[in-house]
Protein 1
Amino acid sequence: MQTPKKEIYNFQSEVKQLLHLMIHSLYSNKEIFLRELVSNASDAIDKLRFESISLPELYENDSDLKIQISVNKAQKTLIISDNGIGMNKKDTIENLGTIAKSGTKLFLQSLETKKNKKNELIGEFGVGFYSSFMVSNQVSIRTRLAGTKPNEGILWESSGEGEYNITNIIKKTRGTEITLFLKKEEEEFLETWRIKNIISKYSDHITVPVYMQNYDEKNKTYFWEKINKAKALWISNKSSITDQEYKDFYKHLTHDQNDPLIWSHNHVEGKQEYISLLYVPQKASWDIWNRDHKHGLKLYVKRVYVMDNSHEFLPNYLRFIRGLLDSNDLPLNVSREILQNNNTTGQLKKSLIKRSLSILDKMSKNHIEKYQKFWNEFGLVFKEGPAEDHENIDKIADLLRFTSIQNNTSEQNISLKTYISNMHDKQEKIYYITADSYLAAKNSPHLEIFKKNKIDVLLLSDRIDEWMMNYLIEFQGKKFQSISKEDASINKINQETKIKNNDISTEMINFLKKVKKLLGNRVKDVRFTNRLTDTPCVLLSDAKEMTTQMAKLFSAAGQSVPELKYIFEINPEHILIKKICFITNEDEFNEWIKLLLDQAFFSETGHLDNPHKFISRMNKLLLK
Ligand code: ADP
Ligand code: MG
């Protein structure tokens, strides 16, 4: 017989990079390689179970699905085998020689910039199969795809250094057998107790049984011992599951190293029948802001695994939620296409949104510190809610957190309910301001009248805020009001300082006329204001027009924005205004007014069209 030909392949460059990292990083938690391999084996068995629903012959008369682990101390090898779906040649090249996951490049880049957090990130990313090279000099895989002939087996071998070999072999049983040739310093992984310990830590609740080969000293025989519970955790009764088990299962499910913040496990019967187990993580996954972020729940139908990352059940603004859904109402042969156009999906989504919002609601009431952690980590994602989910807008609004003048810290920790409970007697609206930064918001001249009257204002400075406020119209009967827009409600609260026309001198009235004439249609209007205390003037948006922040959002998104015309408000009580009012030299007067307008523009928008002109004008006036 001819010896089969060995073919040599190069790893894709990203894989090389990743392997290099795996082999040389000082990752302390090396035992996770076993979790990864067992999880792959369990996935392979899940896939077989699923595909054999329509193709029972894939079982090849062996339906006793299991994972087996054995060691050979003499050869220092650890062998993990499964009778799952297996791989053909093309599969091994695609799955083990390249990284299909999009965003891997980004991941690798993020490793470059976060050198000290590298180990954490490696765990978070769930490097999967490649983690076997953390503990091995050499890995060889014998595998055969279910339903193919015994002579279509594949031997895949690599030392993780840049290339791998593929050889055709005969493999009688379907599935995959992975042999790790352990590094000298990793021999602890040959110890039965060590392996049992890792399996019970990470793989107790996978649905597949894991067996370990043991030696019976007395009878001098080998026997297989089951070393995990092999019962799907979510099927068990809530009361029989410990917190630790929930946490371990979370780690198994997500490959996240951190404990979850909180979770909710529900068996639902009645019109809909399903089990859901939803977790709120502590930390955002590294790719949560990527467009192709793979979020979504692990989907089971009647206990059979169907797919990962089914994003059909949760909206984008809840994409941080991890967990699983086991439905009795979906068809077993469900595909992504079916999911997308399915009534049941829609109903499930509704219930899961309710469930998720109620987890957050409970956390916000009963675990305030945890909720604050959640908000600091995921608030920005959650703020997409009002725009995305109108149906639940009241609940979402209730869960939002803000900072405000009176809060006096940039931490967003005030709810709208708290804001309302602190409202002034005569205050009708919820006041807010949007700006580019917390400091810009906090020091905006628009706040002066509010500070004077001790009325609180929400300070919004996240990029998404202006967008979100577009969708928040009212909360508990109170309307939202941007204070950089003109609005009459403020006069009610500011009774005492209301400007009475007869208080204003003739000089001032003439002054206003002159300013109006000078600025012409550069502004929408010029008027006196009582909103200011320390600042001579501000720009205000017309109630019907776009605000400055909205215009910025539009132009950042590459859309054309009509030129904004502002209302120029002048504080007649300000000493500078009082002085300018008496300047008789027309040129000098004009220069001053233009300088004031530029100042107000700068303070409102954070930039100037012609900064140089502004500076030279100011210097000229300073010299006088
Ligand atoms: P992931 O499990 O996240 O997809 P891995 O690196 O762990 O990433 O595995 C890569 C791929 O290799 C898997 O998606 C699967 O297609 C294939 N694979 C790994 N182990 C097995 C196995 N025991 N049986 C069948 N396919 C496997
Ligand atoms: Mg994997």
Note: The chain has 22 helices and 22 strands.
Protein 2
Amino acid sequence: MPQPTTIRIFDTTLRDGEQSPGATLNIREKIDIAHQLETLGVDVIEAGFPITSVGDFESVRAIGQELATATVAGLARCVPRDIDRAGEALHGAANPRIHVFCATSKVHREHKLNKAIEQIIELSVESVKRACGMVQDVEFSPEDASRTELSYLVDITGAVVDAGATTVNIPDTVGYAVPEEYGHIFAYLREKLPVLDEKSIYLSAHCHNDLGLAVANSLAAIRNGARQIECTINGIGERAGNAALEEIVMALRTRGDFFDRYRTGIKTERIYPISRMVSTMTGLRVQRNKAIVGENAFAHEAGIHQDGVLKERSTYEIMNPCDIGLPANKLVLGKHSGRHALRDRAQALGFRLDDGQLKKAFESFKALADKKKDIYDEDIEAILDQQLQTGRQLWELVRFQVTSGTNMIATATVVLSDASGEQQMDAATGDGPIDAVYSAIQRITGVQVTLEDYESRAITAGKDAQGEASVAVRHNDRKVRGRGLSTDVVEAAVRAYLAAINRIKSSQGQWPTTDTPDHPPVEPQAETAEVEPKAASG
Ligand code: KIV
Ligand code: ZN
């Protein structure tokens, strides 16, 4: 019997995942997710791209300092300044890794980098050597590897391994590959470069989901020698996302008969709580029918199926919901639950609260329990998320009143209190109630923004459900998001808008909050250019 091979799980939720359009995480949220990833049993956590913003730098630094067992990686282009910044962010981390990348495909070489094959190899080798001078663990990614000539991939892989890279990642950057072809790249590299096995170099798979093949491609890579898989919780990421961690892990586990030799160190019963946490904090909802963690993943609607499951679960269920940590009973707390019960539940859901935060969260919980009989995990997550999102605020909502209806102009009166506690009131009309309250808020705060996106949803079912609103506003060149929560939908919208305005104020240095100041980064000219990248690579 061959010995089982352990597959390293490299989670990039906080880097590639956070690049999802619409995702926003503050530093506190990133740290909490990183702790949960460590508890989940992830081997490597890519915590950010330090050169891109002060926020990313600080997140990588804080996560590196806090985590004891997982490796913490920071991304860098093949630019000395990028690598130095990543090294600086990882200084003092227990297990630091610098992840260097440079595009290699013809289309990237000719249109993006304007560099010849030899120049790219030279640059990559120099960059890996520079990173090796700072940390022992260096990963190299030839970006768009799946569209790169195989012979060139062999050359660059050999060169960066000679330079000291211990992991070589083969990204399917644009989600173009199909499983047989992607798997073949791994087999080919291992055949042509015996040094990979001799030196125990980790080949890694990094798949995007543009054709819905990210997980299939990752599994094909494993069967052809990949020993590290790069993935994200809920499959979030650029465009159609990255390979979903939970799907890969559960495929290996559920089909142990087929994937006999492969194991991961993931504690699968922690999958559901972290999926919920990432969804709540990023604001990226999990689609209902998403494999493993979607709301319908274990729901049986058809009578024949329900009957079958009642007689024998395995008739229609290939996994046990307990194995992914799906709670059997979702009703958790009520009006009479105390502070300890809330703290215990918060911990079980993966939130770490200090005493001050627990106190505030408990006040929100009690206020909610007065309005709503049954409090579900989703309600608690929303309260805690709100708590972590907002922290100390410049403007707080005191009260508002709005009148609207058919054939009338909506009118709103809003009272806010500022940092000194002084209350300010203003009124405005608008095209509907939300427009009217938002105009009144702009008049009070003096912050002029354009509303770009507004979304509202019920957190749980029922008449008394809490509503969550999320908004995206544009302020000068910046898009800023905010989320708000209330059993009243208009109030949730007001709170979301105020959260975004407070973020803008805090990044202008007008008020300290738990948010990282979000310095708007600069557009990249090319991966090797001496400018700060605006959008990190996918
Ligand atoms: O998709 C990609 O190519 C990436 C690299 C930076 C690894 O995310
Ligand atoms: Zn990517």
Note: Confidence is low (pLDDT under 50) at residues 510-536.
